[in-house]
Amino acid sequence: MDLHIEDLTVTVDGRDLVHRLDLEAADGEVVGLVGPNGSGKSTALRCVYRALRPSGGVVRIGGDDLWRLPLRRSAQRVAALTQQGSADFDFTVEEVVALGRTPHKQGNQPLTAVERDLCENAMAQMDVTHLARRGILELSGGERQRVLMARAIVQQPSILVLDEPTNHLDIRHQIQLLRYVRGSGLTIVIVLHDLNLAAAACDRIGVLSEGRLVAVGPPEEVLTAPLISEVFGVDVTIVRHPITGDPQILFELDSAPPSGRYQTVATRP
Amino acid sequence: MVDHVGDAGTTAHPTVPRARTALLVAVLVIVLAASALIAIGLGSAAVPPADTLRYLWASVTGGTISADEVTRYQIIWQIRTPRVLLAVIVGAGLAAIGAAIQALVRNALADPYILGVSSGASVGAVAISLFGALSALGIYAVSVGAFLGAMAATALVYLIAYGRVGVTPLRLVLTGVALSFGFQAVMSVMIYFAPTSEATGTVLFWTMGSFGAATWGSLPIAAAFVVVGIIVLRRRSRVLDVMSLGDETAASLGIDAGRARKSLFLMTALMTGAIVAVSGTIGFVGLVIPHITRMITGATHARLLLIAPFLGAILMVWVDLLARTLVAPRELPLGVLTAIIGVPVFIYLMRRRGYVFGGR
Fold first, then answer.
1. A137 touches chain B (CB under 8 A)
2. What is the ipTM of this complex?
């Protein structure tokens, strides 16, 4: 199912957190969103999983205006891994995963055998089967993140919105998750802070800065040294991955920051 | 993993087999019935359980009893039975409300009185008994006043907490706490300037809680609110599960948390108002029984809202029995006893099971 974000604006207290954003993801496409802290990435995503009503613009999924659909209906098509995702009460892992079926159930309808299989498969895919009976509050940040990912999979969406899904994950599970993202066939919008992982995982990348989309396109066109310097304020060297050919971004901690954006105000004696 | 082949589509919770939950309910029903029977029999004039049963049977079926038993019969049927039944209703109601409220405001320290319901009810009740309004309602005037006070307090808290992004759980809790102090101040002023000492007794009743005023007349309304309320809350179990994961997550799972919170709060406020109106403010039950139940059932609301009312009812029956027998003929305030019994039980369970609530 395709996703079209058209002219999306979110205004809070007179300030545009997202300003006239246009972004689309074709059916099965993986679109990354990168940008500095506070550039409006999460805010834009929240409008897609309906945690925040946009001040202007339209979000279309499969041609339908998302915000005109009943919430339950849109949740059947769009699943999300949010940043605010933990529980305050000690549900077990399998209970949390099972709640992913909520938009497909009426009231307290119990899960069917097929749905329970679905839950078990999702837990296996995210490598949390061994945690099934554990309380969600006992888990480490990374384990919890994988549980929430399993819950999103169980929702059987056509569109998956992932807000920093690799947070807290060790490198093996980061790769595992992004492999799932690549192979799922779902339409995916994903916020990533690791530009190298973004380059490897995404078909296209959009770069947000101060609520505006400043570039969008295939990773090798978007992730250029001048753009990264401009948007993030860091100098980088870009090389090609020797096997995949994806752009890989290298940093030098000792080089001076580029002039203009950041200035050294004090140095260590 | 639990093997569920053969009962496809009927098992509500993969973690706990239905049979175990059913067994637990059966045990709790028996314990509750036995507790109620013992509590009805005991008091200043103790009646053996067999006689108690006979009297109850006689009043339900219209049977006969001998003339020298009339006094005992009247104590059993007119005084103790409604009182114990009220304890059952109030205990069950407070436990269910507490469980739901804790999910609604995502706060493990929340209880049924969090939204200023209790202090609002006290203000309403004291105002009625002082100024004699609603006298057309006779003996129910004070209860109606308490109910109206509770509703007014809840509405006020909700309106004040309503902000630009709707009502967030934390704003609700903070507003409730702040306004509770305000209501208490109003109540203190009323008592200070009250012409009679009667008002002081009324206040004690409403702040400490008592089933001393239980009659058959006041029972059905409170029972209706509590029973209907628990059924409604239980029907929204999955919504409560989802809401305890946070509003953002709820939205992504197709639940409008703001809207659900509004309707569920209305439900819990009506229940709490009806309970406070007949029993005053009984602390601790609504806070601790949900936690104790979670240690047994886990956090899932379908099970929590099934088991918690039984535990609340059983605790309340025993607490009331102790309250009226320990220092007879005087009565201890219920709130004192709920704390004395509940705190050690709670601490014991918490240490034994490594129970976690409210995050780490």
1. yes
2. 0.85
